[in-house]
Amino acid sequence: MNRPQITVAVIGYGAIGQALCAELLRHTQGPRLVGVLLRSARPDMAAMLPDSVAMPDTVAALAALSPDIVVEAAGQQALLDHAPALLRAGHDVMAISTGALARPGALDDLLACARAGGARLRVPAGAIAGLDGLGAHRLAGLKRVSYTSVKPPLAWRGTPAEDSLNLDTLDRSHVIFEGSAREAALAYPKNANLAATVALAGLGLDRTTVRLVADPAADGNTGTLTAESGIGTLRVEMAGRASANPKTSASTALSLAHALANLNATLVI
Question: Average per-residue pLDDT in the chain?
């Protein structure tokens, strides 16, 4: 039996959004891109997308395209602004800016909207591996979960790290934050979304320990997940180059594309 093609709309057209859209358009037999919500429809952006892809300027117009799923790739505030209405209207939402769920009541509110609309709030792995293993350890009884993110100094510009460090002259590795995933996600909204994802898959936002590191020797972004449970220890490290936005990894958009492809695949891995 042939499965109907999944239709996808994307919120945001920054580094992640552009890479995801390019990947979807490259694979014509996979999920079909039907629309992209832009903050401002610039002519150069319009030239990057084919005529078959709509560029609405409101979430209502995006929903009118009747996508099977909407991918948020525009930051924490965009998720909080747009996801409630989409979920209540029955559209699944795939969120990459999961740090927004660290705000008081945000997760409960979005889940209530999803239940009301019969929709799902989906969280992809993003730039980390091992969440399936973390889920298995969770069932066995997690004792500890930690996540460490190491990025070059320029990736921490515009963050609280600049209050205590000169990122331009940093000559050694420096831990700029250590605390809970909730604290990390709120203090570093553009850098620590992955910490929130790990927390949601494991011990939760308040019991997951996070370390954020600025390292002048780093030539990309590295995330390390460590977990202990009654069945053993999990340790996963994923290192790779940054995207056009140094705060995020190049693999993030590909993780989204993989998660979308799995929605309608005959063989799901």
Answer: 90
**Is 43 a residue whose pLDDT tops 70?**
no
**CATH number, domain with residue 196:** 3.30.360.10
| DSSP track, the chain | -PPPPPEEEEE--SHHHHHHHHHHHH-TTSPEEEEEE-SS--HHHHHHS-TTSB--SSHHHHHTT--SEEEE-S-HHHHHHHHHHHHHTT-EEEES-GGGGGSTTHHHHHHHHHHHHT--EE----S---HHHHHHHHHH-EEEEEEEEEE-GGGGTTSGGGGT--TTT--S-EEEEEEEHHHHHHH-TTT-HHHHHHHHHTT-TTT-EEEEEE-TT-SSEEEEEEEEETTEEEEEEEEE-B-SSTTSBTHHHHHHHHHHHHTT-SS--
Assess if residue 268 is contained within a domain.
no
Tens digit of each residue's pLDDT (9 = 90 or more) over 211-261: 999 999 988 889 999 999 999 999 999 887 766 666 676 788 888 999 999
Whether residue 181 is found in the same domain as residue 115: no
Assess if residue 267 is contained within a domain: no
Total number of domains constituting the chain: 2
Parent domain of 192: 131-240
Do residue 144 and residue 33 come from a single domain? no
User: pTM score, two decimals?
Assistant: 0.90
Shared-domain flag, residues 104 and 165: no
